[in-house]
Amino acid sequence: MDTVTHDWSRQNYIKLWLNVSMCVPTFLVVETLAGYHWNLLTILLVVLAGSAIMGALCGVMGVLGRRSQKNFVTLIGNVFGTRYSKVFYVLRGLDCAGWYGINIAAATQLIINLLALTTGTKIGMLPYLSIFIILLIANAIIAQSSGSLQKLLSITLIVMAVGIILVLINMGSRTISDANFLANGPLLKTRDIIGSICVVAAYWNGFALNMFDFGRNAETDRDAFLGNFIGIICGMFAMAVIAAIFAIQSFIATGAYNWNLSHSLLHLSASLPAHIFVVIIFLMFMIATNSVANYYPAIQCIQAIGSSKHIKLNAAIFLLVSSAITPFFLSSSTSELAYYWINLCGTVLAPLLAVLVCYLLLNKSHTVSITQYRWAYLIWTGLYIGAELVTRSILSYLWIVSIAGIFVTVYLLHKVQSKQALAN
To answer: Is the pLDDT of residue 214 over 60?
Structure first.
């Protein structure tokens, strides 16, 4: 992935986003919105709006990555220096390790559900751990081969298209009549809509940091921007529609709508081959997502922290950390704390998007100093964290406020310094 090829077209980016949007945890976004009892149209509009915001930001980062040819690790080092940058490498690595394990655990649960459905018995912890470890290692092996990954990205989309067609055929005409529940919903408050749009956009805070790296491979600036912008919108739209299809199928089978993917898949079909087919599809998506969104950036950070180029050693460190902290994230007794930890990583890392974009845009003008970039980041991130601590709640919409605040602050600093330079 570190090899720059300059051969990524718009279609490559769209293919990438379609794959990462189909990973099991991403469906939690729609499940959360459905919990408000909104209709599908409202959910789709919120998903599209949030995706468009992050898509525009990712598009800009892709263009800047292509022009500068600098990756995330290099940019952090340029802005925060050797000593302080390691703090971000550690946080980024832990964030990726956590999500890597969560994705593996979600895929493992799909397999366990399938085994339980097939055998009619409860599956114990030993089979669960065995499957988890096998997937953990296998995913890392596949992630090390960029050629295999590109093929996987293409194959998964083809298989998914076939699978959705088969599901729709299986559902038949009842789909339309049973989809009436999508037409009604409660009256919406502007605050709820804005907050939910920010939640959708904030979901991609961590993955968005990869756009500097992926942008380096773009054929043109247009490909880097439109590929990311269109890609995230198409990917999230497709994910929301697929989630709705599974929810409707769950209603047909049980009389109740279930937006939880792991549960709704159990009612997808009475055919065992169909269940196996669907589980395989989501396993492929999990591998693709983990490879590009979690494994690759985490290995980058490990290399930057320890200056080690030994691929197997870095991979072993990552897998050990991921397997060690994943039970913590999944434990029912610490789930709330784990949720806050993931949010904290996003809170600390999200404002970096604005800082790095500003740095690349204004680097040649030398109007804003490195120290000023650091203070802008610390002040706005501190306000973000402070507001959440005071209110004791997760305020997802504040990440946009912090990013906008950094943009405005740096712009004002740039204007002031430019006027002073002209005056002198």
So the answer is: yes
State whether residue 394 is helix, strand or coil.
coil
Say what the pTM is.
Answer: 0.85
Dist. CA 377–CA 381, nearest whole Å: 6
The per-residue pLDDT for range 239-257, each reduced to its tens digit, is 888 888 888 777 777 777 7
Query: Residue 126 is encoded by which pair of tokens?
Result: 């030993």
Paired tokens of 182: 């999508």
For 27, other C-beta atoms within 10 Å of its C-beta total: 23
Span 10-330 CATH architecture: Orthogonal Bundle (1.10)
- What count of other Cβ atoms lies within 10 Å of the Cβ of residue 11? 12
CA distance 215 to 31: 31
For the chain, the domains span: 10-330, 334-424
How far apart CA 385 and CA 399 sit, in angstroms, is: 10
How would DSSP label each residue in 358-373? Answer: HHHHHTTTT-S-HHHH
Which residues are 218's β-sheet partners?
8
Three-state secondary-structure class, residue 120: coil
Residues in a beta bridge with 8: 218
User: Residue 1: which pLDDT band, with cuts at 50, 70 and 90?
Assistant: low
Residue 255 contacts residue 271 (beta carbons within 8 Å): no
Sequence-ordered alpha helix ranges (H) in 255-309:
261-264, 272-289, 296-306
Name the residue among 353, 361, 368 with its Cα closest to residue 207.
Answer: 353
CA dist., res. 67 & res. 62, Å (int): 9
Other CB atoms within 10 Å distance of the CB of residue 110: 23
Kindly state the tokens that stand for 87. 């703090």
Query: How far apart are the C-alpha atoms of 132 and 108, rounded to whole Å?
Result: 6
Q: How far apart are CA 255 and CA 267, in angstroms?
A: 11
pLDDT at position 273 is 77
Q: How distant, in Å, are the alpha carbons of 26, 193, 308, 317, 381 from that of 240?
A: 9, 17, 41, 35, 31
What's the CA gap between 295 and 34, in Å, rounded? 30
